[in-house]
Amino acid sequence: MSRIVLVTGANGEIGHSLLEAFASSGDRDVISVDLRPLGDAQRGYVKWSFEGDISDPKLIEQLESFDIAEIYHLAALLSTSAEKNPELAHRVNVNGTMGLLSMARRIGQRTGSAVKFLFPSTIAVYGMPSLEVKTSAGAVAEDVYLDATTMYGINKLYCERLGVYMSERYGQLTDDAGEKTVDFRALRFPGLISAFTVPSGGTSDYAPEMIHAAAQGKPYACFVRPDARIPFMAMPDGVTALLNLAAAPRESLTRRVYNIGAFAPTAEEIAMKVKSAFPAAEITYAPHPKRQAIIDSWCADVDDSAARRDWGWKPTFDMDTAFDTYLIPNIAGVYAG
Ligand SMILES: NC(=O)c1ccc[n+]([C@@H]2O[C@H](COP(=O)([O-])OP(=O)(O)OC[C@H]3O[C@@H](n4cnc5c(N)ncnc54)[C@H](O)[C@@H]3O)[C@@H](O)[C@H]2O)c1
Which residue from 36, 151, 163, 201 could staple onto 82, CB 3.0 to 4.6 Å apart? Predict the structure, then answer.
């Protein structure tokens, strides 16, 4: 029998890629949830589709009737959108996650097997105290510099901890203590770049925006300085990482929250790559002080040695192959078509 999996935020950038991956493996019955209706292509990949707000208890009640084995909780307000509406971000990102974790717990109790809860966290959980420290720290491990400065980063850091709590310490002074009903696993994604969807609402959006503008022959004014550096990853690697972490045997995991990295270029290094593919590209810099400050507070790179050791994480794409074989040809194709 196929496993039932729930994908929230299924209509987003990662959601589209994940639904496609599930469809090609064919071993799961997918329930999707999003505020916006799925397009025809995605609708064909799912068995049940719900339109609604993940922080709505009535929606949770409906979802709870399914014997869900895995939850991929992607629905969230991203960093820029969350900063523009912090109260809404808290409701969706935090209350929405708590509601789903509690639902997972009840389903786990009912079915007698722990529900796997895959949570996409972010490098926004880091808060580097200064540019000097950011530069000298280089690739940072999971448990240092956790001083998020944005609503989004704070929400995600708290939800990482909620997930660990629900898996390991729920109601530790009650009779329920020690019961294993939720198997929380989180990945801290760097900025993900897709060849097929254009992001919105994120602070790492300058990288994909630069490529999409160049492919359309449009000028692009980058909202961060040329020397701004954060980690990035090609979208297929992000989806593979989610699936591989979900498949890893519990006993091989020494943590519940893992960094994953691929490449960590400056904005200027990205611009040079884009210009080598689109020589007419017009890229200028008009740093937005507040968005720049957010990027400066995120780490320059991540230490992902725990993921490599515990569940064999290894990105397929480095910077050159991501651009030369995945991003540039596909994005050029989209606009040429
Ligand atoms: N894309 C990245 O670079 C990146 C990096 C780190 C972490 N993440 C995390 O991965 C997840 C997915 O990111 P994405 O890039 O696909 O984002 P996205 O904005 O493309 O998709 C998010 C989806 O969630 C839906 N949504 C928003 N609020 C909702 C609500 N209240 N109820 C139901 N659905 C709601 C939106 O309609 C959208 O389809 C997010 O949790 C994000 O924080 C993404």
Answer: 151
